[in-house]
Amino acid sequence: GQQVMQIPQYQHVQEGEDFTTYCNSSTTLSNIQWYKQRPGGHPVFLIQLVKSGEVKKQKRLTFQFGEAKKNSSLHITATQTTDVGTYFCAGSATSGTYKYIFGTGTRLKVLA
Amino acid sequence: DTAVSQTPKYLVTQMGNDKSIKCEQNLGHDTMYWYKQDSKKFLKIMFSYNNKELIINETVPNRFSPKSPDKAHLNLHINSLELGDSAVYFCASSPVSHSSPLHFGNGTRLTVT
């Protein structure tokens, strides 16, 4: 079945450093979403990417969707303590399906 | 105004018991989901309903039975609870479109002793 892996599993950074998490799917995706889960919280939607090679920015966050639509990345510039949490990608393999498979997540810790 | 609400927030019970978790959304969404998050934070889809109809049923033990009395509600009943069922269960909803964000509830932390 479809699998979505993320690396790294954990990342500790000093405040102000950059951070990147990578998402790789075993199958071609129709679209990909990114979520953030704060400690003790629930996943919160950040963004969705649909087109091959698409790049989107939200302030310090940059999201990319690979040309082959099988991988994606989230880059945070100059991390802040408020960035702490687990970042998940979630991929939908087939257009029209309601099934989003979540990646394994990357837990980010930011040291002040 | 909580968009997706789950009850209870915490559930501690003994092995062998039967328990239910309730979920309600006031967003007018047609699709609702149950996800299970284990101790390693992996989020796995369990079930999905679209307008009260079951559309996704992953490989989940048949001790787990979802019920959707209407499109705003999706409950999860678990029979004969086992230690391995301990996890956080998240309810989520989304509009009809497959390319819509999921809105998650706050989760129910189930502990089976």
Structural account:
The complex is a heterodimer of chains A (112) and B (113). Chain A is mostly beta strands and 112 residues long. In chain A, 0% of the residues lie in helices and 54% in strands. In chain A, the strands form two sheets. In chain A, strands 2, 4, 5, 9, 10 and 11 form a six-stranded mixed beta sheet that branches. In chain A, strands 1-3-8-7-6 form a five-stranded antiparallel beta sheet, with no helix packed on it. The N and C termini of chain A lie far apart (41 Å). Chain B has 113 residues and is mainly beta. Chain B is globular, with a radius of gyration of 13 Å. The interface between A and B is medium-sized, with 27 and 23 residues.
Core attributes:
heterodimer; A: 6-stranded mixed sheet; 5-stranded antiparallel sheet; 11 strands; globular; B: 113 residues
Q: What is the tally of helical segments of chain A?
A: 0
Please report which band the strand proportion of chain A falls in: under 5%, 5-15%, 15-25%, 25-35%, 35-45% or over 45%: over 45%
Whole-number radius of gyration of chain B?
13 Å
- What integer value in Å does the Rg of chain A equal? 13 Å
Mind summarizing the main beta sheet of chain B? 7 strands, mixed
Show the largest interface: A-B, 27 and 23 residues
Name the structural class of chain B.
Answer: mainly beta
Pick out the low-confidence regions of chain A: none
